[in-house]
Each structure stands twice: as C-alpha cells, then as structure tokens.
C-alpha cells in the first residue's frame, strides 16, 4: 500500500460485493417460503408479516425460540457440504416452539463467517429455506456477517430465531398432564444436532475418517453424521388440532430423552420409560461401542432414536400413533404417567432437569440393539 492509497473495507477483509452476490443467489429459495402474509421481499431492514389472522384468536400467545446447530457444523465444513445444515437449524428452533402447541409463523437466520463465499452462503440459506418450507414457516429475514481476523476464512456458524402463536386455551404443557396418561415416542432421523462434541471425540478415538464406511450403518461416517434433523412442526401442529387428549410435547435435544421429558411433567408425577420399548438405531450402539461410552452418559447426551415425545390421554394414544405413522414418523408407546415415588436421583431417575422444578422420569430395562 502506498502513502496515498489508504485502508479500504475490502483491504480490511470485508467483501460487500460478495455479500450482495450471496443475497442474489439465495433470493429465489427464500421467496418459496413466503405466502401472501409476507409483505415486501428480501433485503428490507425488517421482515413484515401480516398478523391479521391473529384477530380471530380470543387470547393469542406468542411463542419464541432461538438456537443453533452446535458442533455438527464442523462436519459440514469438513465435508464441504453446506445445504443440509439449514434443515438442522430450522428443526432445532421451530420444534421447540410447537412443544407448547404453537404454530410457527416466521423465522430469521444469522450467519457469521470469516469470509463470504457467495456459493457457500447461498447453499446454507437454501437449506434453511427448504427447512422452512417443510416446517410451514416463512423465512422473513436474515443477516450474514463477515468477521475477518476473528474467524478463519472457511469458518462459519449459524443461528436462528422464530415466533409462533397459540390460543391460550389450547396451550399444551405440564398443567394438562395427569396420572394414567400415555407417553408416546416419535422417532428421530438419527443423531439430530446434539451431542456432537461427544460423537466427534468417539470418531477421533476410533481413528475413523469421515469417508470411512461403517458396515452397521451402511454408509460413511460423514454421511451418517450429516443426516438432517427431523422437522416435526407440521405434524405436531396437526396433532394438537386433531387429538383432543393431547397433553404435552417434549422436544428431545441437549440432555437426552429423560431430562427433556421431565421438563413437561408437573411436580408429583413421573413418566415411566421402558428402554426395551424400541430397537436402538445402529448409530447409537456404534458410538457407544467405538468409544466405550457409559450407557447413562450416552442417554443423557443423545436422543437414542426418540426426537419428540407426546403425552396423551389413554383413549387417544392409538390415534396419535397412527397419525404420526401416516405422516411418515414411526411412533410407539414408551410408558405411562404415574404418581412420583420420590426415588433418589440417579442413572435411572431424572428429576427437575434443566432448571425446571417439574416431575420425574423413571427409566427401566436395557436397550435393544
């Protein structure tokens, strides 16, 4: 640089033209998520959504959630595959919202990166948009931030936030749960987007490359680890509207099945979970075996094949299971809700998880591999 040139934004490492190119490349995918309720297009300072439909609610409650995809993003970067991580992001956000019975309405995303590579950013946003289409939510805004000197050129991370609405009288949760209710599992699509720090440690310990084919999985390590998180939101919204005895949902994310189920149970009640009620998907037993991971650590970290749980009145359990299966999501009975026997907390008893002073989950038996 000569004395007369000076320092430019581009010289500092930020390429605004690349950012504009990325926006142009993603516009069509984002537009596919827009219905007539979305006003304006991509590029406005704020996304606008016509909330006139909320006037039909007697007491509309807004539900909001925000999340990321954790260290699963390391796998996407290593494989240079960036069009699936968006579905993970949408799932992690909107499937938290539907737990209370809310219908997701709008979502926004945020991408931080060391260097804007338009094609890569467009792939990420295309995946987010496709996930939003699956979820029935409008992608109304987003931000891509270039952080040279803070992040390496190929580094990026993603986060998202969404808002939904539920009629106050239809709100699902612990207040509806009663002794005798049935606990129903809804199958995950694999590891989803939690516990990847543990899983990546196991991969390193086993000496596997992402290109290593694992016979029990029938595909490579990388393909298994990038399997997108299942999006349950449309199904859960439909179930909330069609199953009168639905009491609560629990989205099985960080902390595992028991800890997340305990969050939606009231004090004084416990849910039984029979570990032998389903065949453990191969990826979980592969991770356990390759890393000699203690079973209680595995199940307090990973979803063990259950991505969503429903608590439902006994008379409606069969209908809920059938509806889930018809939507392509296998479901089965895990156990029942009983009076909490106040057993000491341990590997088989989880109580008051994630700061919620709620009920307990009693695990029994051993997993079927």
Automatic annotation (TrEMBL):
Stored InterPro entries: PurM-like_C_dom, PurM-like_C_sf, PurM-like_N, PurM-like_N_sf, PurM_cligase
Cellular component GO terms, alphabetical: cytosol
PurM-like C-terminal domain residues: 179-341
Reactions accelerated catalytically: 2-formamido-N(1)-(5-O-phospho-beta-D-ribosyl)acetamidine + ATP = 5-amino-1-(5-phospho-beta-D-ribosyl)imidazole + ADP + phosphate + H(+)
Leading EC class: ligase
EC number: 6.3.3.1
Keywords attached to this entry: ATP-binding, Cytoplasm, Ligase, Nucleotide-binding, Purine biosynthesis
Pathway listed: Purine metabolism; IMP biosynthesis via de novo pathway; 5-amino-1-(5-phospho-D-ribosyl)imidazole from N(2)-formyl-N(1)-(5-phospho-D-ribosyl)glycinamide: step 2/2
Residues passing through the membrane, by range: none
Recorded GO MF terms: ATP binding; phosphoribosylamine-glycine ligase activity; phosphoribosylformylglycinamidine cyclo-ligase activity
GO BP annotations, alphabetical order: 'de novo' IMP biosynthetic process; adenine biosynthetic process
Pfam family membership, one: AIRS_C
Subcellular location: Cytoplasm
Domain PurM-like N-terminal, chain residue ranges per copy: 58-166
HAMAP family attached to this UniProt entry: AIRS (MF_00741)
Family affiliation: Belongs to the AIR synthase family.
Name of the protein described by the UniProt record: Phosphoribosylformylglycinamidine cyclo-ligase
Lineage, broadest ranks: Bacteria, Bacillati, Actinomycetota, Actinomycetes, Micrococcales
């Amino acid at each position: 640089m000569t004395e007369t040139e000076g320092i430019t934004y581009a010289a500092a490492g930020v390429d605004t033209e690349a950012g504009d190119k990325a926006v142009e490349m993603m516009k069509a995918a984002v537009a596919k998520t827009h219905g007539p309720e979305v006003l304006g297009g991509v590029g406005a300072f704020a996304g606008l959504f016509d909330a006139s439909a909320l006037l039909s609610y007697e007491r509309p409650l807004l539900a909001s959630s925000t999340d990321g995809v954790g260290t699963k993003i390391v796998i996407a970067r290593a494989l240079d595959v960036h069009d699936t991580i968006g579905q993970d992001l949408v799932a992690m956000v909107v499937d938290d919202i539907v737990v209370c019975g809310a219908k997701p309405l709008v979502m926004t995303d945020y991408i931080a990166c060391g260097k804007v590579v338009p094609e890569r950013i467009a792939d990420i946003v295309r995946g987010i948009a496709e996930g939003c289409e699956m979820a029935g939510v409008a992608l109304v805004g987003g931000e891509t931030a270039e952080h040279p000197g803070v992040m390496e050129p190929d580094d990026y991370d993603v986060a998202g936030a969404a808002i939904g609405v539920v009629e106050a009288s239809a709100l699902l949760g612990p207040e509806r749960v009663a002794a005798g209710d049935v606990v129903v599992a809804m199958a995950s699509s694999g590891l989803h987007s939690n516990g990847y720090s543990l899983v990546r440690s196991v991969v390193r310990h086993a000496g596997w490359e992402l290109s290593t084919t694992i016979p029990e999985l029938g595909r490579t390590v990388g393909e298994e680890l990038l399997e997108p998180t299942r999006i349950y939101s449309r199904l859960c919204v439909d179930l909330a509207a069609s199953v009168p005895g639905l009491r609560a949902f629990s989205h099985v994310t960080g902390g595992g099945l028991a800890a997340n189920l305990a969050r939606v149970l009231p004090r004084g009640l416990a849910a039984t979970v029979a570990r032998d009620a389903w065949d453990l998907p191969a990826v979980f037993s592969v991770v356990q075996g390759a890393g000699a991971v203690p079973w209680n650590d595995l199940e307090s970290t990973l979803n063990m094949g259950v991505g969503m749980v429903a608590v439902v009145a006994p008379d409606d359990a069969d209908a809920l299971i059938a509806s889930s299966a018809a939507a392509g999501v296998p479901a089965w009975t895990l156990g029942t809700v009983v009076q909490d026997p106040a057993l000491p907390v341990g590997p088989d008893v989880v109580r008051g998880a994630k700061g919620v002073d709620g009920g307990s989950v009693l695990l029994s038996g051993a997993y079927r591999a």
